[in-house]
Amino acid sequence: GGASEVYTPPKQMWLPASKGKGLEILGTFSRKQGNPQMVMTFSNKAMQPMTGFAVQFNKNSFGLVPGSALTIPSPLSPNQSIDTTLPLSANGPIQRMDPLTNLQVAVKNCIDVFYFSTTVPINVLFVEDGQMDRKVFLATWKDIPSSNEVQSQISNCNLSSEQATSRLQRNNIFTVANRNVDGQDMLYQSLRLTNNIWVLSELKMNPDNPTVQLSLKTRALDVIPSIQKAYNDIMLN
Amino acid sequence: EDDDGDLDDCFSKLAESRSNP
User: Fold this and answer.
1) A186 part of contact set with chain B, CB < 8 Å
2) Which of A46, A51, A79, A220 has its CA 20 to 30 A from that of B13?
3) With a CB-CB cutoff of 8 Å, which residues 1-21 of chain B face chain A?
């Protein structure tokens, strides 16, 4: 651990060489030093050197834009592969995408412009100061109607409540309070997205039962499926 | 301190009200 402890999915094929005129891109998303980032491998599988790389995003739900220029050595020679990291900012133009976390990307080089789309794991958009004040949490929990509460289950989870607390905290999901009621651990948690949406949660964990009950409360119901997936990914990986 | 105690109590009540019997 240390440098990058947030849950980072394995790299996926974003642009196969067959669609990129020899350019292949594998990638994933992570979070480092308070910023989301794209972590990619560019490979030149063409028979000519590639130069002039640049990247652009279409408008997206969270206003993600590249935070710097793409750094690829020029030229990228035939058979050469290079790992590169692109820091992202969340201060760009916003347009709601379906699914919400969809991101359309354009990459250009001296040969052509290539397009692909991917989905951003929403946990890379959980900010470091997402710990809600306890008093505000209680008021907000009460304030959000039960129609805005969605329950789900996380199966096959073998973490203790302490392990879950620390693993979730490394991913910017903060435990505001915890109680043990009749042997069941109840964790009250908060997270905040880069666009200032708050999500409150309750985790019910029983040491004798690998199924965890997750209840999410937020005024922005749209984000719930992505948050449920993030909890699953973080707790099971 | 009293405020903290109240908050502790509120979380205990919340947890009790939501725990499965």
Assistant:
1) yes
2) A220
3) 3, 7, 10-12, 14-16, 18-20
Q: Which residues pair with A190 in a beta bridge?
A: A174, A200
pLDDT digits over A22-63, tens only?
999 999 999 999 999 999 999 999 999 999 999 999 999 999
pLDDT of A3 strictly over 60: no
A188–B7 C-beta distance less than 8 A: no
Are the C-beta atoms of residues B9 and A136 closer than 8 Å to each other?
A: no
CA distance readout (Å), B13 to A49, A139, A180, B6: 67, 14, 11, 10
